[in-house]
Amino acid sequence: MRTGPTNSIVDVPGLRVGQHTRIGDGWLTGTTVVLPPDAGAVAGVDVRGGGPGTRETDLLDPRNLVERVHAVTLSGGSAFGLAAADGVMRERYAAGVGFPMGTPGQVVPIVPAAVIFDLGRGGDFAAVPDASFGQLACAAASSDAPELGVVGVGTGGQAGGLKGGVGSASVLLPGGATVAALVAVNAVGSCVDPHSGELYGARHLAPADLQGVGLPGDAAYRLAAPTVEELQRAEAEIEPSPLSRRVPSVLATTIGVIATDATLTKAQCGRIAGSGHDGMARAINPIHTMYDGDTLFALATGERGAPEAEDLHLLLTAAAEVVTRSIVRGMLAARTVTTTAGTWRGYLDAFPSAGRFD
Question: Taking Cα atoms as reference points, which of 289, 132, 147, 261 lies closest to residue 212?
Fold first, then answer.
């Protein structure tokens, strides 16, 4: 498997990522923005969770007018955090980027958004992203590889009692197209097999996926099964599985963006987003619960030509793979966080023997 130069979503030419994080004094939340080129990108969406918090998703229906979006906002703060998209809109408008409505400068930026539930995890239930978070995330936007783990939208994430965070991954297809994803891991379900302690999606990792998450990239270094003692300790510390409770004690939601430089229609982008949920299901169990708002957007910048049927099949397959790998990388990069609301241990802190030299 060939990954892109940064093994992240910015391997799709023209994309930039900006993140704003706030931790401490009651805060544990943040916002991430994915910016396509100023001309925008064709987009689609697929919402599978039973408790979504979204904005502008109906617009992405192939039957509706607007073809291109000018940013995607991913934020903490539950429904309050949708306000971060207002700041992104203002920044895009100030740059003259948006859907043209008349004379030059008269534009409406199209900024779909989705949020995760992280309320109160920093200690203050009312500490939520607002428009300034979106503005600051835009100001930080770069074509450099985004930081992973406890950052941006993933700052307050958790999954099955362990710390969640932001992950990203890319793949270069044989025909030359790039497919990549950025995902914020925050789930009612768990990413960890309770019988072995291994991450469900770990078998999908590429060698480069261990780089940038606190593990060496040496070929002799790999993820291994945790010890029995670590499993027993984790079982005692982590809340009982959501499968054993009638109503989860927390709400959640895993959200993200899949991107490619291929030329796709809105309908094809929607199909790419749908395939991404297959990748989500490989890495989290249970997935798409009534207490999650799992949502994936797909962006196509159109730098390359339209795929033939076989190439589209490869794009769909790759979309699932990069989502799975992004989720695993997010879990590996997330480190332990303690606030007045509690402690969420990072996977490698809970299972230190999981990453070792053979």
Answer: 147
Give 32-85 as a DSSP string: EEEE--TT-EEEEEEE-SSS--EES-GGGSTTSS--EES-EEEESSGGGGGGHH
Angle at 192 between CA 282 and CA 241, to 5 degrees: 105
Confidence class of residue 294 from pLDDT cuts 50, 70 and 90? very high
Residues in the chain, total: 358
Contacts of 312 (CB under 8 A, 6+ apart): 268
What's the token pair of residue 332?
């590996």
Q: Does pTM top 0.90 for this prediction?
A: yes
The phi and psi torsions of 173 (rounded to 5 degrees) equal -85, 160
Q: Cα(180)–Cα(272) distance, rounded to whole angstroms?
A: 11
| pLDDT of 238 | 65
**Token pair belonging to 254:** 């895993």
pLDDT value at position 243? 41
Residue 358 binned pLDDT confidence (cut-offs 50, 70, 90) = very low
Q: Which residue has the tokens 């239930």?
A: 125
β 255-260/295-300 pair status? parallel
The Cα 98–Cα 111 span in angstroms is 9
Sheet hosting strand 166-172, strand order edge to edge: 68-69, 41-47, 295-300, 255-260, 178-184, 166-172
Q: State the maximum Cα–Cα separation within the chain, in Å, rounded to a whole number.
A: 67
124, amino acid identity: D
Beta bridge partners of 27: 24
Inter-CA distances, 176 with 18, 44, 92, Å = 26, 22, 30
Helix axes 266-283, 309-333, angle to 10 degrees: 40
Q: Which of 247, 243, 255, 303 is nearest to 112 (CA)?
A: 255
Cite the beta strand spans of 39-161 per DSSP E.
41-47, 54-55, 68-69, 72-75, 99-100, 107-108, 113-115, 158-159
Percent of the chain with pLDDT over 90: 82
List the one residue out of 204, 218, 288, 203 whose CA is nearest residue 254: 288
pLDDT(192) > 60 = yes
